[in-house]
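Course assignment 3, question 2. Fill in each field.
Student: A.L.
Task: Predict the tertiary structure for the chain below.
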Amino acid sequence: MHALKKAQARLAALEQNLLKRSLRTSASPCTPHPTVDGLTLKAFCSNDYLGFANHPDLITALTEGAKLYGAGSGASHLISGHSIAHAKLEEALASLQAPFIPHSRALFFCTGYLANLSAITALASLENESASSSTTIYSGKLNHASLIDGVRLATAQTKTNTVIFDHHVLLDLERKLSSDTAALKLIVTDGVFSMDGDLAPVTELLALAERYDALLIVDDAHGFGVLGENGCGILEALQLHSERLIYIGTLGKAAGISGAFICGESTLIEYILQKARPYIYSTATPPAIAHALLRSLQLITSAEGKQRRQQLGHLIATWQTDMVFSCWQKMPSSTAIQPIILGENKTALAVTQHLADAGYWIPAIRPPTVPAGSARLRVTFSASHTIAEVRELISTLQQIEVTVLASNAQ
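Answer field:
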């Protein structure tokens, strides 16, 4: 069969170029010390930034939710699957973002991928009814795959132009916005860039959106729960306020469970509800998940949540101060994502193997997730890690760098 032979050839090419990925199976909850393939490892690779994924309160709330609402939702939200648990969660999420988005309303989704596809494709269709009108989407060069795919899908479905911008060079973005005559303009960006760990210049992007009559879509998957005094995310951290903001948060990272949400001005959210195909045609997340997430939001904004964010800050500061390499590049990140740029795929895989031999779980990140020649380790911290564990990791990595560099020199 032609397709089978083609698939075999493509897989062989991935193997040859050191780009083939593999699954590892964990037999334990998400913790800093999971059991993987029968071994207890020291994990610095999850997105469980506050250490809530195995929190006893959330386990109890999930069990309680299943007893109240059963195992599944039974249908899409617009048929019969929208539970009171979903409604309460959406009200709570909208309330968290209300200081930053006037007349805020939230929609809950199964995944962040679906939320991003929904927000971009639905809003890009606002001008689709008029043959003479057009839309331009300005998409950050380093945006997450779900944002990129949302832009591609919107471009395929509507009369939409796409402009890629570098979030480090906003003068170029402003020049393009200033000459754009499209009826509708959308600026799309990550809040925290997932592979570099840096923050998008959201304050400056919002100023451009205000100046040139655009909407600003911010995917804060890695900021919600972590950034801001109360963990509300990048809008709280930067103290922004605008009806032009479309905020997307993920609930399977710092929130510790699963799902995502879109929050925006109520009219825009109603339009997304009416037009977003991933929302309309997906079975709703089990209401037990929504019930547990209500407890997660309480934890995020509680004294415990604040203490965990402080602990995370201590870990990041320790890493940034003490992690010194002779050749490898440490990124100047202020978030829980701390990449180490290693360059070639071969080097990244070798370092990952050395770490595995030392009992660590930190996979190599390679193209197409990151640009060619920038393979890396994506070290991530959780509030469940200790300062001693971070210092032990630092010492281990410094020893591995010496070993790898010596091996390459031979």
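Instructor remarks: Residues 24-52+306-409 form a domain with the Aspartate Aminotransferase, domain 1 fold (CATH 3.90.1150.10). The longest strand covers residues 184-190.
Grade: pending
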